Amino acid sequence: GLAKMMMTDVTAEILETHLAGLKPTYRDALLREIRAVFGYALKRKWCVENPVKNMDFESPPVGERQVFSVKECTQLLNACVTKHPDLLAGIAIGLFAGVRVFEVMRLTWEDVALKEKMLDLPAEITKRKRKRSIPIEPALLAWLRKAIKLRSEKTGPILPFSSYNDFRNRIRVLAKDAGVKWHQNAMRHSYASYWLEQNNDLNKLALYLGHVGGLDVLQRFYHRSVRTKEAKAFWALRPRRV
Q1: Which segment of 6-20, 65-79, 164-178 scores lowest on mean pLDDT?
Q2: pLDDT tens digits, residue range 9-68?
Q3: Which secondary-structure segment (H or E) carries 173?
Q4: d(Cα 88, Cα 73) in Å, to the nearest integer?
């Protein structure tokens, strides 16, 4: 572990490995403490560099939520199609249905009712341990059909990962290939922002997100966080015809 390493041997890559899978707020809190320790060591010339300076904090400022732009969504989806087809269905569900990453990792194709155009999340895979259903919007339906066409797959897990670390590592590669800076929970925040701007219904959004807090929270975070023109462009995203 880190406790047995010389400070001069600790790199940003090593820290990322040790912090992988932690909640953004907890990860960032640890990063701040580590940064302070290395800052203290630098002043006393116990090391030559603070590795935290080469790392990004994941949590957005209080009261803000990171949202992928329409361009970034396009780049991510297209990168899935060309280089990471096994990620396409999961990324599409995250963007166009707002399902949490760990819920998508537990989701199977058997939970995707294409004919009824509904995602049915069993209680055992959701954060609140309550079953919830989310309409499959036309955009999501198009991308799911594209994923099925690319993979010839309609059974088994939506994502091919057994751990969050595996997902995280692949997402880093995907984001790099797409030319997009990845933000924790940004897919879910994007869905909420674009959906609310198009539909203006906090009660339904809370139901689809599985949100149990007050509606004022959703109002504060997502109301007018994107423009109407952007929302229309987001919901109009479709796979390229070949």
Answers
A1: 6-20
A2: 888 888 888 888 787 777 877 888 888 888 888 888 888 888 888 787 665 554 457 999
A3: helix 164-178
A4: 12
Place of tokens 């819920």: 103
Q: What span, in angstroms and rounded, lies between the C-alpha atoms of 146 and 31?
A: 40
Question: End-to-end CA distance of the chain, in Å?
Answer: 50
Two structure tokens written together for 229: 């023109």
- Owner of token pair 């406790």: 3
Question: Which amino acid, one-letter code, is at 116?
Answer: E
Listed residue (66, 82, 62, 63) closest to 74, CA to CA: 82
Interval 76-111: pLDDT, tens: 999 999 999 999 999 999 999 999 999 999 999 999
Pair of tokens at residue 21: 């899978």
**Contact status, residue 204 vs residue 192, Cβ threshold 8 Å:** no
Q: For residue 184, what are the contacts with CB-CB under 8 A and spacing of at least 6?
A: 24, 58, 59, 66
The whole-angstrom separation of Cα 237 and Cα 81 is: 14
In 3D space, the residue among 32, 155, 157, 141 whose CA is nearest the CA of residue 92 turns out to be 141
